[in-house]
Amino acid sequence: MAELAHDREAWRELIDLGALARWMDGKDLGTGMPIEDADTLGGGTQNILLRFTRAGRTYVLRRPPRRPRPESDEVMRREMKVLAALAGSDVPHPGFIAGEGDPAVLGTAFYLMEPIDGFNATVGLPPLHAGSADVRRRMGEAIVDGAVALSRVDPHEAGLDDLGKLDGWLERQVGRWRAQLDGYAKFDGWSGLEALPDVEAICAWLDANRPATMQAGLIHGDYHLSNVMYRPDGPELAAIVDWELASRGDPLLDLGWLTATWRDPDEANQRVSVTPWDGFPTLAEIVDRYLAATGRSAADARWYTVLAPFKLGAILEGSHARACAGLTPKPIGDALHAHTISLFERALRRIDKPLL
After folding, report:
1. Ranges 10-14, 103-107, 201-205, 224-228: which has the least confidence
2. Residue 259's CB: how many other CB atoms inside 10 A?
3. What is the DSSP-derived secondary structure letter of residue 282?
4. Res. 5 pLDDT band, cuts 50 70 90
5. Sign of the torsion formed by the C-alpha atoms of 42, 253, 299 and 147
6. Closest CA to 151 of 256, 80, 269, 57
């Protein structure tokens, strides 16, 4: 219990409330009043979330983890830019209040956002949602509708022209993630491509069937059930969260990512991210709803339902490679390697058996 209490108070070593209060004074956010009721929020992220009140208003501060990565400050600056750009849009998102890109204030970049009245379905369902298959079906429809709303954001009109490189975006996808896999050979003991399902077949199909053009838009980059919050009083989305991979690209990638992480009845012993699961739409229904709302083609969508599990698997296999070299705990590496195998098998299955 003492260790848990220490973990909950560890943020005090990282966030100087006095410095934060002075910075907020400069932004006219509760000037001169004390910061009260500060406490960390849990979630599926390594980033630190601190909820507090000042002058009767509640804030949530988001900053990089205790051991920031070299790019952590830039990630924070990107997130705050995207959230500010989404203000007034139909995309459910945390309301952006103010941010600081200069790490001189608190040691890292950070920003303040509005608190979200919602829950993460992968953590647990409230009685309303757990007790109704119809509500769960509408939850599944709502996450699709969130991706549709995001696909309609024009990055140029939103002031996001510098968010990612569009030139050659479509053409470089397969090569980039194949190179990621090949790069793991630098880790001693990595089991190699031969321990994975047919990587060559996946890459060959993706190269041969690449769409001729792309429709550029704003993408979340990691769109799945763990990164949305639902309203406690209904099936609607309260907010899409964790925007650290947001960029410009083809929004169909978000649809592909959703299908890469959704329950697939063709997979044995698949871990279900939300229980109970019955009522949620099928994979085909998810794709059909998105295409009906956006007018995108089934052929293009099929390509992204193969690319997304390949890309996700290529990323996750890195932890296995590092575990083989003794740089990551072996149980974690083994679990993610098994997940990579299932994702590559899913990609191969989508080649042979399209969702639509």
Report:
1. 10-14
2. 23
3. P
4. very low
5. positive
6. 256
Residue 159 burial by CB count (10 A; 0-12/13-18/19+): exposed, middle or buried? exposed
Give the strand pairing for 48-54 and 57-63: antiparallel
Q: Which pLDDT value is given to residue 270?
A: 75
Count of CB atoms situated within 10 Å of the CB of 276: 14
C-alpha distance across the termini of the chain, in Å: 51
Distance CA 33, CA 56 (A): 10
The whole-model pTM stands at: 0.93
Place of tokens 């099929």: 302
pLDDT, position 10: 74
What are the strands, taking DSSP E only, across the chain?
35-40, 48-54, 57-63, 96-100, 110-113, 217-219, 228-230, 237-240, 247-249
pLDDT exceeds cutoff 60 at 266: yes
